[in-house]
Amino acid sequence: MFDCIIVGSGPAGVFSAFQLRGRNVLMLDVGLQAEPGRRLPLKNIYDMRRDGDDVFEEIIGSKFEGMHNIFNEYMSPKLKGPLMRYVTERPAGESRVQSTTFDTYSSYAKGGLASAWGAGVLRFNDRDLRGFPISSVDLARYYDILTRHIGVCGSEDDLTPNFGPVDGLLPPLPLSPQGSAFLESYGKRRKSLRKQGITVGRTRPAILSQAHNGRKAYPFVGQDFFQPNIPAIYNPGYTLDELVARDEVTYRPGRLVLSYRELPDRVQVTTRILETGETEIVEGRFLMLAAGAINTAKIVLRSNSDFEARLPVLDNAISFTPFVRPDRIGVPSDLQAFPGGELIMVYEGELFDEPIQSSVYGLMGTLRGDLLFQMPLSVTGNLAAVKYLVPAITVIQTFYPDDPSPQNVARLTPEGALAIDYAPKKLGVLERHLVSALRRMGYLSSTALTQFPKAGGSIHYAGGLPMVAGASKPYQTDSNCLLHATKRVFIADAATFPRLPSKNLTFTIMANAMRVADHVKTLV
Predict the structure, then answer these.
(1) What CA–CA distance (Å, rounded) separates 201 from 284?
(2) Cα 83 to Cα 42: distance, rounded to the nearest angstrom
(3) C or N terminus of the chain, fewer CB within 10 Å?
(4) 518, 20 in Cβ contact below 8 A?
């Protein structure tokens, strides 16, 4: 019998295992992976096109997967590429989440959704942890360990009070011309913008600006939206491989966890072996569920055969507002730029009672086809215009906090699927403020251009099994993330977050999973 069974190999599962080193740990995982041997050559995508390299299958795909957003509802550019599709594939027999108001992206991949993430790793401060039964002090040492282990780059700037100490950070990635221009414009109008509640600084991504822990520095080849497992961009699968190589965890992929049953001295976990369809039961003294907030909630409801309960669903609603800087129209594109969010903008003012965070990025990482219908010209005209406009466009992606609401819930259907009801939020006030404020920086836009994707599009999910001091009600978890009415079942992922601040959550998922694992370690 194992000391602890962990379900899932995403950020929570891997760092639960990391912290349980020295114990007899089993990780159960579907563990989908990228197709072996199918990779892009390590060169810039624009150079490939110029040199006549045939990368149609890797960029567009035989089923035109890369053009998904032209013909279908919006999908994150990081998920639609042919080589990235495995990240959100469902194993045979596993039902899709049912909802007309909420887009759900679940992952059964090795590494979880962090196999295709933006890699932003930001510490929660006490203001972010409002409503949690823990404080930033409880997470601080785990943030420090993670910073040293995974490699995080960043620098001291105006956002340091929001993001915490810079100790252990690698040097920041060099900014693209777009990022440099935006930061320079902010610096010239810093005093005025701060009065309007706007602060700008560099992001802190889990991307290597220099070699670290056996991984090479970020290569600037523009493949982030098309190529999985670029070594410089951290993936929990890297740490899992290290743990397996050192015999510090037993990893069993190809298992879909269906349910668990707690006994007085152990927990039985029922899985389906995907290759054979056979049922398998494994036992451990303790269980840590880390399958992602949505899948973890489903496993708990299935295990209790509960079709009546309504569990809270949290999501960071998002908006996208494009801005054009006229003096950059037609300038040469920088092919060596990082295509993700380079800067972060935080609004803190009278419009909201807490900080609202936005990512600032250009469009060099996306296909021109993604912009085909975003401008008012003909298809041919739009394609021609995009060539000249892309170097001048900066996009502000804003994330909104979320609190539990009786309108936003998940339930188990009689067929065993998860169904989600979620009421869309009314947004737009902050976007109007930003359009006005950034105009003085030379960035032009209109609120009519702002897009508000359907709920769930942020892929920041939480809340189904909220962490509450005492955990006196069904499906709550206590401050150690022990599930109510159990003695051996712990929840390691964001299902325990009682609310979502306007900040990237993965770093805190990792840190909290380590904290919970340390508690479990005292019990085994």
Answers:
(1) 46
(2) 15
(3) N
(4) no
Q: Which amino acid would we find at residue 49?
A: R
- 98 contacts 420 by C-beta, under 8 angstroms: yes
CB neighbour burial string for 243-282, b if at least 16 within 10 angstroms, e if fewer: beeeebbebbebbbbbbbebeeebbebbbbebeeeeeeeb
Q: Among 461, 462, 459, which residue's Cα sits nearest to residue 496?
A: 462
pLDDT tens profile 350-393:
999 999 999 998 877 666 556 555 665 666 666 667 777 888 88
Q: Which amino acid is at 90?
A: R
d(CA 435, CA 198): 12
**Rounded (5°) CA angle 156-504-88:** 135
Using 70 as the pLDDT threshold, list the residues of the chain that sit under it. 67-71, 74, 335, 365-384
Pairing between β-strand 25-28 and β-strand 250-252 as defined by DSSP bridges: parallel
230, 110 Cβ separation under 8 angstroms: no
Residues with Cβ within 8 Å of residue 98, at least 6 apart in sequence:
413, 417, 418, 419, 420
- Contact yes or no for 313/409 (Cβ under 8 A): yes
Query: Nearest 5°: CA angle at 316, between 314 and 317?
Result: 115
Residue linked to tokens 């991984």 = 215
Per this entry, what is the length of the chain?
Answer: 524
Question: Taking all residues of the chain, what is their mean pLDDT, rounded to a whole number?
Answer: 92
HEC string of 368-424 equals HHHHCCCCCCCHHHHHHHHHHHHHHEEEEEEECCECCCCCCEEEECCCCCEEEECCC
Going by their DSSP bridges, the two strands 25-28 and 2-7 should be labelled as parallel
Q: What are the boundaries of each domain within the chain? A: 2-521
Identify the DSSP state of 282: E
Q: Round to whole Å and give the CA distance between 321 and 318.
A: 10
Three-class SS of residue 252? strand
CATH code linked to domain 2-521? 3.50.50.60
CA distance 7 to 423: 30
Report the chain's C-alpha Rg in angstroms.
23
